[in-house]
Amino acid sequence: MNKIETLCLLCSQPLQPVISWEMLLTNHFQPTICDKCSARFEHSPTATALYQYNEAMKDYLHQYKFLQDVALAKVFRQELYARFKNEKAIIIPIPMHPLKQKERTFSHMEELLKAANIPFIQLLEKTTTETQSSKNRVERVQTAPLFRLMVGAHVEHKQYLLFDDIKTTGTTLRHASEILLHAGARNVQSFTLING
Amino acid sequence: MKYKGWLLPLALRDFHEGRIWLKEYSPFSKEDIEKAIHHKYFHIIEGIQKVPHLKCSRCHNIDPQQFTTFECSKCQQQCIYCRHCLNMGRVSSCTQLMIWTGPPAIRTKKHPLEWAGQFTMLQQQAANELLESVKANRSHLLHAVCGAGKTELLFPTVHYALEQGLRVCIATPRTDVILELFPRFQKVFPQTIIHALYGGSPKQEGYAQLVLATTHQLYRFERAFDVMIVDEADAFPYTFDETLQRAVQKAKTENAPISFVTATPSQKLLTEYQNKSYSFIPKRYHDRPLPVPRFDALWSYEKSLKRGKIPQKLKQWTENRLTRKEPFLLFFPKVELMKIATPLFQLLDASIMAVHAEDPDRKEKVLKLRHEEVPGLLTTTILERGITIKNVQVAVIGAESTIFTSSALIQIAGRVGRNANFADGDVVFFHHGITTEMDDARTKILNYNKKGFLQ
């Protein structure tokens, strides 16, 4: 995962290596996709997400999650790093069900953070293998608890930040945040890669 | 009494024979697969080979850049996967590939050929030479100009091989070519099970003794074919991607011959086969010379289009086609430029359309042109080969661009005058400076005509 990419991870066109003083002296990552591919993503105007859902994002999620291309975790590392480097809250990525994770062979949310060198912890556990995307709006909102606290997890009276890939109705994030607040968290905010 | 043991589902055998397949992705039930493995009907190999160097067992990719290592939640170890053939289902260190070693599928020797066509003398000779090579288990290069009737030339060879009970593959780098070939072969071999395999092809039943496949799909085969025919062997990306060439090698049985069929062979193919087993047809089936491209300067066409103006000469050319109701193809060097130009051309005629590689409707659009529902198409090089449209006229815009190699230009010129009733037509290379590739294309075409019409 740490190797330098010489080809764009999305279109396989050769990448021009960028070397600058800024890159050498600050925490800057080497680019992993070309300018053309990067221009296809649309930045989100909201403060709680990096990108808007669009065709490019659909392709990205398909390749990353469905085709299991873990290397794509690196695509947004610079942007994620910039967003999280001064974050005071404790970051918790939304967990996957263990069976699901074994099936996919990796946790896509954790890999995104790892690629960006962002420290995180895990306190939650997914209770169901159902996916939100397979349900309609009403079913989503009325769904039974999606998470529980991990055995032995200790929730402190601190600020937490939940991190998920995409927010559509917000049900997933609401469920997770209720559990944390109930267990004594001072404040729970959320941030997503994509605004759905 | 009821039989309680396990019977091998024949569909499973028919599907898996000759294929190398991810265990989790088999279209058959887990139980049947496990039972078949238990009966030693499958040889199981690891997805990624680590010695002597990293290699994907399916696509034979060895480029270290195309592998990624990660912490795998399934095997709880460092896992390596191949990004090169990712689209076909991920192959990683902890996945297994299955190769059929069980009882072979049943092949028939009855494959009637229903074709009433007639070969010209040149065609007959080449068809015989190709057949002789296959009979002698020898690789062969069939070099025939665009419109010489290459597909028909294959019929006797394919027919012979099928009746010998051999499994035959016709591979080509282009999906469009498969889509064009499939109905033609199904028509002349009505009793043969033929499968057409390309990205997104539908599920097909039975055991196909004749397989038409894109070279990409050959990653999924191993030692399957006794006769391998590579059509349009010079087309992108076959010539560029070494793994595709290795795929052809591994998809055939060890001693199976390869027949290369093309209008524009690379120098490498020519030197390899010219003095060994080589057939050459410089003339079209309808006995009329190839249309020779003409060069016409179109200075700063890119600037002009970007300013929202079609250069005068090009506009004139298009309007002429429209008034004469001649279907036309306009080839562009880049998708971006084509997208800028499309609305400008639609001002001339609102029904003009554009196609490019990622266009989901490209099949339909080409059909519309053929059925004269649209007057013309703007296209990238994807339509450079394999398509036949009656009385089509062709213009290349920016023929000096590097994407227009001499073989691409020869192929493009080869779209024109394929029909016996419309054996001539206009091929114009609009350019911003003449390149050696353009000269080369023209010289070669003139040469073919000279050779074909020696008095």
Q: How far apart lie the N and C ends of chain B?
A: 80 Å
Instruction: Name the helicity range of chain B.
Output: 25-40%
Strand line-up of the largest beta sheet of chain B: 10-11-9-12-13-8-14
CATH fold descriptor of the largest domain in chain B? Rossmann fold
What name does the CATH topology of chain A carry? Rossmann fold
Q: Report the average pLDDT across residues of chain A.
A: 91
The fourth-level CATH homologous superfamily of the largest domain in chain B is P-loop containing nucleotide triphosphate hydrolases
Keywords:
heterodimer; A: 196 residues; Rossmann fold; B: alpha/beta; seven-stranded parallel β-sheet; 13 helices; globular
Topology, pairings included?
The complex is a heterodimer of chains A (about 200) and B (about 450).
Chain A: H1 21-25, H2 35-40, E1 42-43, E2 49-52, H3 55-66, H4 77-84, E3 90-93, H5 98-104, H6 108-115, E4 124-126, H7 137-141, E5 147-149, E6 159-167, H8 171-182, E7 187-195
Parallel strand pairs in A: 2-7, 3-6, 6-7
Antiparallel strand pairs in A: 1-2, 4-5
Chain B: H1 10-16, E1 20-22, H2 30-38, E2 42-46, E3 48-49, E4 55-56, E5 67-71, E6 78-82, E7 96-100, H3 121-135, E8 140-144, H4 150-163, E9 168-172, H5 175-188, E10 194-197, E11 210-214, E12 227-231, H6 242-251, E13 258-262, H7 267-273, E14 278-281, E15 294-297, H8 301-306, H9 312-324, E16 328-331, H10 335-348, E17 353-355, H11 362-370, E18 376-379, E19 393-397, H12 406-413, E20 427-431, H13 436-452
Parallel strand pairs in B: 8-13, 8-14, 9-11, 9-12, 10-11, 12-13, 15-20, 16-18, 16-19, 17-18, 19-20
Antiparallel strand pairs in B: 1-7, 2-7, 3-4, 5-6
Helix pairs in contact in B: 3-4, 12-13
